[in-house]
Amino acid sequence: MASPEIIRIGTRGSPLALYQARLIAAALEAASEGAIKGEIAPFTTKGDQLTTERLINSGGKGLFTREIDRAVDNGEVDIAVHSLKDVPTLLPDGQSILAYPERADPRDGFLSVGDVKCLADLPIGATLGTASLRREAQALALRPDLKVITFRGSVETRLEKLKNGLADATFLAMAGLSRLDLENVANPVSLEDMLPAAGQGIIAVAARPDMISSLLLESLTIIDHTPTRCAAIAERAFLTELDGSCRTAIAAHMQLADGGWHLRGEVLAPDGQQRWFAEATALLSASQDELAALGRTLGQTIRNNAGGALPAYTDT
Hints:
Helices cover about 30% and strands about 25% of the residues. The chain is α/β, with parallel strands linked by helices.
């Protein structure tokens, strides 16, 4: 029997990122019937090194991917495994996202000290820890009395900060908590109450198609999940239309509902006091190009509703 093809998988070194990379390695091994074996190559990105400040003050989106992107371009790794919401809408030249495995729970999870189960039950003036401008704006839209402090780091780091009393509550993605068997520590927030980040719960596998084997390319096609790819395309098109960055509070989610696609999106002012929401639908048979157009059109609708200019965070 021939030796398996060794595939080098670039990823961040956090427990969640390593779990996701191992998930992809196992999926590729199964898809190739053992003809592929994945080897994990962890990287420390600039985003991982920032533990006390907002990403928008240090370069924004791409801080969790650039080192790995370079490794793909240089041939140090064959594929990169990212959380899709960390991936800029513009990929490095020559790279493509070749697989979107099935999406996990896209919802946010609410975590607090004590027995508080939801944002509404926090005491007046409570402290919320988050590094997400979207979550901050959505929380302040509901609770303008809250004090918000920057909460950065891995899932484990933020849980430790919460345990140590640095904040009364925080939000984490249910997908990440579930992958780490920690979903029991959070209370899921419904999509109606808190629209997630575009791509939340989706793993993206990126590569340079011209630098990988036909076996790997075929295996990536097998692990690609078409409904997840469709959602990713529409949500990222919405983000692209709005020039989505870490300086604007943007949320988007597309799901199957009533026999078709249902896309919702919103933009908020940083203080949560202004909010623009829109939604659109498409037939289940819509092509990926049509779903991308759906996302762009929804973005245009929100931009028009906001008067043409979107409110952005400014460091004061």
